[in-house]
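Tutorial sheet, problem 5. The three components below are modelled jointly, 1025 residues in total.
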Amino acid sequence: MTIFGVPAQALFGQLLIGLINGAFYAMLSLGLSVIFGLLNIINFAHGAQYMMGAFVAYFALQWAGLGYWPSLLIAPVVVGLFGVLLERTMLKRLYHLDHLYGLLLTFGVALVVQGLFRNEFGSSGLPYAAPPQLTGGYNLGFMFLPTYRAWVVVFSLVICLGTWYVIERTKLGAYLRAATENPTLVQAFGIDVPRMITLTYGFGVALAALAGVLAAPIYQVNPLMGADLIIVVFAVVVIGGLGSIMGSIVTGFGLGVVEGFTKVFYPEASNTVIFVIMALVLLVRPSGLFGRTA
Amino acid sequence: MTATRVLVLAAALLAAAAPVHAQISDGVIKLGIMNDQSGTYSDISGPGSTVAARLAVEDFGAAKKGMKVEIVVADHQNKPDIGSSIARQWFDAEKVDAIVDVPTSSVALAINQITRDKGKAFLVSGAAASDLTGKACSPNTIHWTYDTWALANGTGSAVVKTGGDTWFFLTADYAFGHALERDTEAVVVKSGGKVVGKVRHPFPTADFSSFLLQAQASKAKIIGLANAGADTINAIKQGADFGIVRGGQQFAGLLVFISDVHALSLERAQGLVLTEAFYWDLNERTRAWSKRFAAQHHGAMPTMVQAGVYSAVLHYLKAVEALKSDDGTKVIAKMKEMPTDDPLFGKGSVRADGRKLHPMYLFEVKKPAESKGAWDYYKVRATIPVEQAFRPLDQGDCPLVKK
Amino acid sequence: MSVTAKPAIAAPARDAIETPAVPTHQLAAFTVMLVVLVAAPFFVYPVFLMKALCFALFACAFNLLIGYVGLLSFGHAAFLGSAGYASAYAAKVWGFPPELAILSGTLAAGALGTIIGALTIRSRGIYFANITLAFAQMIFFFSLQAKFTGGEDGIQAVPRGTLLGVLDLRQTYTMYFVVLAVFLIGFLIVYRSIHSPFGQVLKAIRENEPRATSLGYQPEHYKLIAFVISATLSGTAGATKAIVFQLASLTDVHWTMSGEVVLMTLLGGMGTVFGPVVGAFLVISLEHYLAQLGSWLTIVQGLIFVVCVLTFRRGVIGELGRLLKKPL
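Model answer (structure tokens):
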């Protein structure tokens, strides 16, 4: 059976691959969306923080012999702390200004971080192996699915849905959402709003770093791994609607699938299809698919 | 009468004894090493090319011969506009006489034009475009180490002859990738093989899973990688994840360097078939030189590009010495006249279209168990003799060559 | 009667708004700039200066949009690069003389600017930045795929030609003064756009758009016109650059080029007259001197962004203007 000239089996395989890639997009755009949606900060350093997460995993292995499983916790914590530091020292001063200054600052931070890592490690990738429990794969008939990639999808889904749940359905999330809408009032209720903001930024950054650890065994760990990814992730967040957590998750997975199909029918365009979609969406729905108007 | 004779003789002797650099522009032979110092190709050429050039100057004995040789280095970041800016600045304002190395064909083509306009010399080691000795050939350029035709020919025909007769191409979607695919496809078909499919991936790409899936579905015996650098490494690495080799297919790397194999590690790269012009462990002479090189290059063995820089600079200096001038066009002509000889490539020559000739080698990457230590990566599958290694002179459309 | 009819755009502007004459300090600064630029090629490598001038024009054009309309476009490289390709192709393949080639590039950028502007001008803030980026990426993809652009090789060996049949542009100094003339014309067009009734309306829109609308102006039209001027002059810069360097390449349509022009404008001073020029020269000089240090260039550029945004938001010329208490 063929669909548009491509065997159905091959298409299912591509669909699955698309979901796997979508998982990365979803996790990364989730962090970005949390940061923008709740804090109105445009974090252009997200790609660099993703890269830092992968590097922390690499260092943890090289210097401390700590493998993949501990790194899943260590990397987000370490990079999250870096994020907290960044927010406390620099981002805090920009809240009263136009959002675009936050974008320019984080863009600058990204350049500095990427430049420093490149200086030290060059731009060829460093190898990082998947943990032994996740090597090998399953023969599904229409394709051979590496275990590690299956794990990536499952884990990302858990994290994404968990984050969505915490923010949209719990009291903590409610405080957070209230604090962004009316910080003074929420502060008056005794909640330390600045600290919440700082921790939320740290959490968003930690999500990026977690995506970095997930990525390390698949892609080479290299200083520029986040550089071209960041504009794609931005596109995902914008399409989903800035401020909509579910929008980013859905769009992230959706984009992965669309990209997957593009790779079958018009592979050369697979890097660009996201931008075409973004332009179309913004023309029709200027606030994105699920977005709230600013 | 005798006094005049003595005077004339004395004058002649004085003239003969005048230092070699009397006719060399401002007394200094200035070489510019331009390549990618910190990006994707920095391991293939990068700072190692400077080490190689310095070794050439040393081995030539410039100091003893009273010749002043200076080396300057620049990073073109793989961009033709940066490369051409640097070339202009070097030629116009900094009195550079020859530019050496230049990986990345788009930059090399731009520099080829500028060097020609300004009458200087260009010794290409890093770039692959066979157009440099074809449509774009120039009396100021010599293409030293390898080119797309030689790679396609070596890997393509040799692989088909040893049973790899169905091919699927994974091609980087840019001019260079297309050219590599086209050249290799022609060779495969001519050798009796068949191309069962091809897919073009954006350049650069981080995730090859989708394309590898298509390659697997094609059931081709050989997956030809018409890409380079990080793309090749990622494709092979992810191919291991998806069980390509386990499934019975083999990768053929159309542009792979020993530094790529080093980055991949033997576990992943084993069985990969590739063509190169040089390997550090080929014979006693290459081993001796490579050890000297590695001592100055943090223990890393030289790639063929870096070896090519050594060979080209050595021959260039010999030509300048013989000609007593560093006029670009004249030196290049002299380099074509003189046969070449160095410990790395042995005896060879430079053709009228600027193509340096030497044998090429088909290598196969060893299994981890077969390797005796660091950098012991290759076994020689075949030696392609000089007559067959490069595109025949009359097939290149080079305007310098009369039909 | 005519209560519901909207007045034509020009009418109220001319009657109700008076543009002040050119302030003396700006005239003085312009004279200084002119003298420096005329003398410079005799002291500094002219090809470097020509590059800086092209980027200075690009930055001035970009500044029109961000400094005076308040819109951050993250896709301006599309205009720089496309004009470069058009100009290079016209000169090399069609054999156009340089003045027509540059004109072709300018018109191409203008056309592109009109289309993209019409589609994006309704957005603002981060959405505008994103949608301009999206279109720029599509232009990049097109440039990569189209046969005539030569992919990653670009269009090479573009002839310099003879300007108006008289001036041989292969002579470095002749080329330089032609580039200087192009830059000055572009600079003055930007200046005139700002210091005019049109510019005053833009200012009103930037400060309080609903009020401007209530006065009868249609902000979208004004913003679009500013966008098109900005795109067209960016195209002139790109077209000229292609002739000077005899090359049109993918670098000029890549999104990092859009980031560079933001850096130049920010460093020089957004919303100032001379800021973009100074910013462009500073950034190009930085690139030149740090070129050999590989990644350090990126690090320094990033630091400049960070420092400028935190403590130096007005940029070099902005701070200078504040010291002198006169806008520059």
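Marking note: The longest strand of chain C covers residues 162-163. Full credit if you identified this.
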